[in-house]
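Thread: quick sanity check before group meeting

JM: Hey all, I'm pulling together slides for Thursday and realized we never actually wrote out the predicted structure for the chain we discussed last week. Dropping the sequence here so it's in one place. If anyone has concerns about the input, flag it before I start.
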Amino acid sequence: METTTGPLAALHDRGVRGFVTDGGLETDLIFHHGVDLPEFAAFPLLDDPAGRDLLTRYYDGYAAVAAAAGAGLLLESPTWRANTDWAARVGYGPDGTTRANVTAIEFLRALATGYDVPAVLVAGQVGPRGDGYVAGEAQDPEEAREYHAPQVRAFADAGADLVSALTLTTVAEAVGVVLAAREAGVPVSVGFTVETDGRLPDGTPLAEAVAAVDAAAAPEHFVVNCAHPTHVLPALDDGPWVARIAGTRVNASTMSHAELDEAEDLDDGDPAALAADQMTVNVRLPGLRVLGGCCGTDVRHVAAMWGVPAPA
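JM (edit): ok, ran it. Output follows.
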């Protein structure tokens, strides 16, 4: 069974112990900073000096965690909603969307020059065409490749180290993203979300999803995101496939996706408890290289998972 390849593996071979990545960008900005993010889209902040300052402070916190942990830093762009359909809902046409994706990579590249950490990788983040909490309408891999290709090409043209697809809910869309990345010549990771039973929102067991994507178009590695560690754990067995999972970005809350969708207040849980629950997942993932958070998490949670104090 092939494990992690690409830039993560290369830097691990050079002694980088792992990579800190960020937490729940959108929930942090909305609930802790009072930022209005229509359609959960953070990328428009890049068009505003105050927005850039806020994003800079946000990423600076995770760089501080990486420095304290002696780990590398994976900077993932704030572009989860910067694909054609979602960007159109916040007023961005095709050219504006491409510009936003390129700008996001340039912004992170500039930040990276100021961080004193063992290594920095800049990833262009791709989100699902649909909601991210439900499987949505069926796509075939070729349709998904065509849909995601413009965003993936923008990241490749801007010099991203890899493409990071997160919160995907189907095998077909995951395969399409990988095909788009192969076409653009950029490494890619596939991030699936799971329900409380460890299955994808369409009911596919995580093990089957990983195997199916690998058979059709293998990415450099896989990630599980937008689920609490206790939801990820039921998906893991003793099969060799678990070595393909190189990253987790977990939720702070134990609530299901449906419950989170209806919640009016943020459930940010307890950072220490989340770190303890995450440890049960870590020991089951021999290829784990990237550790960060998703909905409800912030720098406190990620610092706790890395066993370092949260930056002031």
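AS: nice. Strands lie at 19-20, 72-76, 120-126, 162-168, 188-192, 221-225, 245-250, 290-293. The CA atoms of residues 50 and 56 lie 10 Å apart.
JM: adding both to the slides.
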